[in-house]
Specification:
Radius of gyration: 31 Å
Helix content: 55-70%
Oligomer: single chain
Distance between the termini: 97 Å
Largest sheet: 2 strands, antiparallel
Shape: globular
Strand content: under 5%
Strand order of the largest sheet: 1-2
Number of strands: 6
């Protein structure tokens, strides 16, 4: 007979002595599905799906924890970054060996047409075309315009230092520093590349969220908005943080994860490329790095250089730290992360005390790891420290900040609060444009993380040159091209300096860019190969 609407056809096994028959089963669809769900195959599939979901959730939770950056650490990083930028720009402007602003103009030793001849790719491919346009120092050869560009650079650094219009000031600093980097390549130092990279990645981080004029303006605007609308703002970012409270937020995003990846690659790639015998067998790399007298400092550098067993010990320690220390940056435990930050800062301080050839690199490298300071550093140590006299200082700073906010239009006036606060809103409506911008931002950051990983894999010869060329064409104008091979695979045995011949009106020849020749005594250590074991 034909089955009813609630029944299905089923094949039942044959009885003893008979054959299997097809008949109308009285099982409903729900009962049959429940039986299917209890079969071993479905149980295995269900367990795999549940396990995969659990692993994905755990991994996502771990990535959120390891990429969380405290906004107070970001604020300290902002102050240090702006201070280093100010020191660098002022030093370039007052360097007697490189006259400013002539060295960046067409009347200097490297005019723009000479740059095009030396670096022909500037107009022969897309990478060079974009680099020439992104380098704003290429826009003119006039000394007056160069002075104006440097003045804009200084103003942007000052605004970044105090945290006023932080994102705009940060972008201007990035553009001005890239232009200065591309305009006169031989005037760059060892820390320029690292400064460009951390400027790029920190563009996506909220550097002005704490200890800044922007945060003061945001809080005052939120207060005025609440007064004008007769309601209280519930957003945690609009309330002033209380001493010792947990109201300081942490920032977690793909950009913070990309920043940590960049810090990891800087040190890890340096360690992986140190494959020479000086690093892996005889452990004399530090000795030969300090051999030229113009590279080492008089006191600590000379002491390490004169004691070979100490230099061997430092070689082993430096190699072990660069190989096994960077992976600990991805450990979200506050104590481990704080220990990593302190260790790498002390490592760079040791390089600064022993080697003067590195110049700004140790300072910038120490600044680079500051955003990784955990929240426990501020909550458990800084805020609980004995701060006698700090309250009066804090009140003074707050009063000055309120005056600055009042001058900028942040405090209420006698004409009413509603008109001043109309530009502020505590809630952001998720429009289609906001959603699309967030998606595009995530795609862009993921692409940048992918590129820096591929670029460093290419430096290890894990990726072919042909595979990297299409990526380099579009990614290098962003200033994220990199290669970390400092003193790798072994320290250089030959040194030197650059000079530019110039002819005066009387026909005599001079060195236009004198690279401090009094420091280059051309002295060679007494029988260095005899002191090298093996």
């Amino acid at each position: 007979p034909r089955p009813s609407c609630g029944a299905v056809w089923a094949i039942v096994p044959a009885t003893s002595g008979g054959a299997g028959t097809m008949h109308a089963s009285s099982l409903s669809r729900r009962q049959l599905m429940s039986r299917l769900l209890t079969t071993p195959g479905w149980q295995i599939l269900r367990g795999a799906l549940v396990g995969g979901r659990t692993v994905a959730t755990t991994l996502l939770r771990y990535l959120r924890r390891c990429s969380a950056l405290d906004v107070r650490s970001l604020a300290l990083f902002r102050v240090l970054l702006a201070s280093l930028g100010l020191w660098d720009v002022l030093n370039r402007m007052h360097d007697p060996l490189m006259p400013f602003p002539e060295i960046y103009s067409d009347i200097g030793p490297q005019p723009r047409d000479l740059n095009v001849k030396l670096f022909g790719q500037l107009k022969s491919d897309l990478h060079g075309y974009l680099n020439e346009r992104l380098a704003i120092h290429y826009c003119t050869g006039s000394t007056l315009v160069i002075r104006l560009i440097f003045a804009l650079h200084l103003l942007a650094l000052l605004a970044l230092l105090v945290g006023y219009r932080t994102r705009t000031a940060h972008l201007l600093v990035k553009l001005c520093h890239d232009g200065m980097f591309y305009r006169v390549p031989y005037a760059n130092h060892s820390g320029d590349l690292l400064f460009r990279l951390i400027c790029f990645w920190s563009l996506f981080l909220p550097l002005g969220e704490a200890f800044s004029i922007d945060s003061l303006l945001r809080r005052e605007h939120s207060w005025m908005f609440a007064q004008g609308n007769d309601r209280t703002i519930s957003s945690p970012t609009t309330k002033p943080p209380v001493r010792g409270s947990r109201m300081w937020p942490s920032f977690t995003s793909l950009a913070s994860f990309g920043y940590i990846c960049q810090v990891f690659l800087v040190y890890e790639l340096n360690g992986l490329q140190k494959t020479g015998k000086d690093w892996r067998e005889s452990f004399t790399a530090v000795y030969f790095a300090l051999a030229p007298d113009w590279q080492r400092r008089p006191v600590f550098g000379d002491f390490v250089y004169q004691h070979l067993p100490l230099s061997k010990l430092l070689t082993r320690m430096a190699l072990a730290l660069e190989l096994f220390g960077p992976p600990l940056f991805f450990v979200p435990t506050p104590a481990i992360r704080f220990a990593c930050v302190v260790t790498f800062v002390l490592f760079q301080f040791g390089l600064f005390c022993c080697m003067q050839a590195l110049w700004m690199f140790p300072r910038i490298s120490s600044t680079m790891v500051v955003p990784l300071l955990p929240s426990a550093f501020w909550d458990n140590w800084v805020l609980r420290a004995d701060m006698s006299g700090a309250r009066s200082t804090a009140s003074l700073v707050r009063s000055l900040g309120e005056r600055a906010a009042s001058w900028a239009g942040g405090l209420p006036t006698s004409h009413g609060q509603q008109r001043v606060a109309m530009a502020y809103s505590s809630t952001t409506s998720r429009t289609t444009f906001t959603f699309l911008s967030e998606v595009l931002g995530c795609v862009f950051v993921i692409s940048c993380i992918f590129y820096i990983c591929m670029e460093n894999a290419h430096s290890l010869k894990w990726v072919s040159k042909e595979a990297m060329e299409p990526l380099q064409t579009y990614a290098r104008p962003l200033g994220i091209d990199q290669r970390w091979n400092m003193y790798a695979p072994f320290p250089a045995r030959v040194g030197g300096w650059s000079f530019v011949k110039g002819h005066l009106a009387d026909g005599s020849e001079v060195d236009v860019v004198d690279m401090m020749r009094h420091r280059f005594k051309q002295s060679v250590p007494a029988k260095p190969m005899d002191m090298r074991p093996g």
